[in-house]
Model the fold of this input.
Amino acid sequence: MLAVIGGSGVAGLDIMKVVRREVARTPYGAPSGPLVFGQISQKPALFLARHGPGHIHPPHCVNYRANLQALKNGGASAIIAIAVVGGIADNAPPGTIVIPDQIIDYTHGREHTFFDGADRRVEHVDFTLPYDESLRAQLLGAAQACGRRALAAGVYAATQGPRLETAAEINRIAGDGGTLVGMTGMPEAALARELALPYAHLCVVSNWAAGRGDSVNKISHEDIFATIESSVADVLKIIEQFATTYSSDV
Ligand code: HPA
Done:
């Protein structure tokens, strides 16, 4: 079953026909909110709001392990994670939709692995290609099929937050190869890999990152919210289209 994680601005899915909600428990604690079961494009689907109802869990406090484990236990076979990001590369101005192909992790102090209990033998999962390539291809196909332009690659830099970055930090990230910046992509993607759950990111650029474009001196929160609001419909269209063709066999 397709699972969707909603980020900022996507606390629910209008495109989903909701059947039931379930308050899940895991050995890692409670997920951010109830699991929402239903259908998207007549296909079974599962939804979880990453920040919980009313955005109560900021990026550095999200219980990523509980979220991923709850989705797995709920029957997820693949995860599309919606995320709002800052644009660093010239080809990623606000409003751009990106399906990134790589990650750099700058987060710290988060519960970032399932392999730290005395009862679990450590497994060094391969993370060379952090996103599932088949899911990425299907997402791109879905974007094309509904006439939405999406960048087919990008390097997602995960920062700790909740504050935004300094201009110098963004310059450093750009030097490292980062083209997008967000606060929630890690450890989410790595935990999905540890659970062998195919995972892809559907990112919306909400603002120029610090020091770039019109964010030379300051990042405008009003602009961020306006961009999110105007882009959410496109993201939902892509997911709806994706669900019509998604098959867990590919
Ligand atoms: N930095 C980090 N996370 C973000 C940004 C940003 O500029 N915009 C949206 N999420």
